Amino acid sequence: MATWTTVVRRVEEPGALEEALGWLWRSQVVAFPTDTVYGVGANMADSAAVERLFQAKGRPEERGIPLLLADAESIERFCREVPEAAWRLVRRFWPGGLTLVLWRRDIVPERVVAGRPTVAVRLPDHPVPRALARELGGALPATSANRSGAPAPATAEEVLEQLGGRIPLILDGGRCRVEQASTIVDLTQEPPRLLRVGPIPREALEAVLGCRVVG
């Protein structure tokens, strides 16, 4: 893995977003703010970039990478058999801190999802990851910008401490509003299963779905 002199750019600096896209188009990975925690992402269509994403984090091979979407409508491009339950949650909690696990379409490379038939998707409540996803075809494979197993970062400085020298660029958008990784719910089974507790509690999910959420 290459060693970088990691550059930190404020997101409002002229050309900062274009610089990030330039790195992404050149098979590299970059870090950026979201509404929950900082993320690190790659171009899904570039297999070398996806491998670098795993390497930068030290992410275990068997753990897939979620997708950050450009808009809610993109869910049908990357997921199949989207149930009504998913649309209920989308209408209530997107954009925001909820990740949905759904059946994936073949457009999502197997390496991104570690060979699984499902994919985790989220629409972040932040313009930067949505803009990056839009320029990369509607989705950005991204996970929290920390070394695997370490705390998820809420500031660019925390990203630099963990991934400095491992990635070329960090976009600094200040401290994340939520400072907590998203809630994850699996909708490929009945009843739905809560895989990670985050900013959206089980009770809120059950109120929208009208059913029990296990896990």
Which descriptors would you attach to this protein?
globular, about 220 residues, single chain, about 30% helix, 11-stranded mixed sheet, alpha/beta, 7 helices, DHBP synthase
How would you describe the shape? Answer: globular
Main beta sheet: strand number and arrangement?
A: 11 strands, mixed
CATH class: Alpha Beta
Number of helices: 7
User: Radius of gyration over alpha carbons?
Assistant: 16 Å
CATH topology: DHBP synthase
Question: What is the fourth-level CATH superfamily?
Answer: DHBP synthase
How does the helix and strand content classify structurally? Answer: alpha/beta
Please report which band the strand proportion falls in: under 5%, 5-15%, 15-25%, 25-35%, 35-45% or over 45%: 15-25%
For the record, the count of structural domains works out to: 1
How far apart the termini lie comes to: 37 Å
- Helix/strand order: EHEEHEHEHEEHEHEEEH
Average pLDDT score: 97
Number of strands: 11
How is this structure best described in words?
The protein is an alpha/beta fold and 215 residues long. It has a single domain, classed as DHBP synthase, CATH 3.90.870. Helices cover 28% and strands 21% of the residues. Strands 1, 2, 3, 4, 5, 6, 7, 8, 9, 10 and 11 form an eleven-stranded mixed β-sheet that branches. Strand 2 and strand 3 form a beta hairpin. The longest helix has 11 residues, at 47-57. The protein is globular, with a radius of gyration of 16 Å.
